[in-house]
Amino acid sequence: MSRRGRSAEGGSRSKPENDLERGRALYEKRAWRDAHVHLSRADGLASLGGDDLFRLAICHGLFGNDEGMLSALERAHSAYRESGDLQRAARMAFWLGFRHGSLGETGRANGWFRRAERLIEADGRDCAERGYLLIPLFRRHVAAGEAKAAHDVAAEAAGIGERFQDADLAAFAGAMQGQVLMRSGEVEKGLALVDEAMVRVTARETTPILTGVIYCSVIQGCQQVYALGRSREWTAALEAWCADVPEASFAGRCLIHRSEILQMSGAWPEAIEEARRATDLLTARSDPAAADAAYQEAELHRLRGEVTEAEDAYRRAGLGGSEPQPGLALLRLSQGRTDAAESQIRRVVGASEDRLQRVRFLPAYVEILLAAGDLDDADRASAELEETARIYDTPVLAAISGHARGAVLLARADAHAALGPLRRSLDGWQDIGAPYIAARVRVLVGLACRACGDQDGFGLEIEAAQQAFRELGAAPDLERLREVAERGPASRPHGLTARELEVLRLVAAGKTNKAIASELFLSEKTVDRHVSNIFDKLEVSSRAAATAFAYRHKLL
Predict the structure, then answer these.
(1) Counting Cβ atoms within 10 Å, is residue 544 exposed (0-12), middle (13-18) or buried (19+)?
(2) pTM for this predicted structure
(3) How far apart are CA 514 and CA 517, in angstroms?
(4) Domain 498-552 in this protein, CATH class
(5) 107, 236, 391, 466: most buried by Cβ count inside 10 Å?
(6) For the segment 157-186, what is each residue's pLDDT rounded down to a tens digit?
């Protein structure tokens, strides 16, 4: 007789029953690890019913055992079909499709979704499972960029969840509906729906696997529209959930979110520790999200001036499938490799069409293009950030756009105009609680003050920025700040950048643009642009006039 065929007769009967009872009790107490042990043991001694197999599937899923989870779901599906419970069989088919889809197995996912549809049609009754099968349709609409259709489908699914008092469906569909609204520019309406869904989750009304899915998707959605306050709030809630299941398959992603929030808040030692833990945990599971953890680790190394470690982490991120930008381009800029930084950031911005996705790259684009002397492109990128900030209207986007606009105006030697957006940006970052970015804006405010003749204002802003960089451990920024503080206000007349001064000296030496390009390892097109900018800033129209300016101001 087979292992499952032994129907627990005689002396062998008490063991599976005891394990099963204990497994059920531990599951209800949310003692997932012990529940997993006892349910697995009971499953090895006797055939389990559909409900217990679903519990076992959830335990397998929590600890990253996809093979065990899928096997238990298939067996639960069969058990429900054999007992005539077609609605529950359809629900298991949905979860099989959902998980296969998450693993990138589209064919299997579609097959299980179609089976679920056939079972519901055969059953003939209205049921919550009809709402679950709207979720794949929702995802197809999102992938096709059909926001209105996606919203309507999510709203319909949420309504079915409410009608059947199905907390999982209502929370999942409500969160999806909210995220569509947020990405469509209706941030407050979307956040209200997300908050409502998260109340169900934090009250532990949802099943454990879906709890992790909703948490991660909501935090990601909040980050995409730069709703940092909500992202912090739900990250803290997610941290509490992961503490209950420290070995759960979601824990690595939780650590990435936590590291990002800690970085923004200025707690860099804790942030890099969480990023490393996430990298180790996700790498051990061969989880693709390990690449995202490596990128987060790289960013912290870059900010701390740990170049070798940053290079290695960016490489791991890229090899794992995560875009290592804009961090890698900013690292190249800090190394003085402006051409490499410019090429990289232009590539990634040029390949990005989604408005919110471009926000990830555009601040670095502005910084690098200003360093390269392309003020016009930097200006256009700043205008795009301002438009995005108007559409989504969040404090973070307003602070980002103000920072970019102020930097461009300062580069155009319009310090008075630059002070307004820079001050608003500084106030925004301070309110948000982002000390590093606030300190970087302070440097620009200080330079604008100096350009306006306010040497005291310059000194105060630079001193405050210096203190912040020192406390954070931002070694590269401290070094750059020393150069700024030591450089006199006349050392960059008419707003010339360091690279433009280099080019001007070579122009004054009588070298052609081609020769300058060869000497500075730049493209000739880049040198042409630098020379044009020099003429504009110095208000001259010839190389001879530029040379005369250089001699007059003792730049040679």
Answers:
(1) exposed
(2) 0.77
(3) 5
(4) mainly alpha
(5) 466
(6) 999 999 999 999 999 999 999 999 999 999
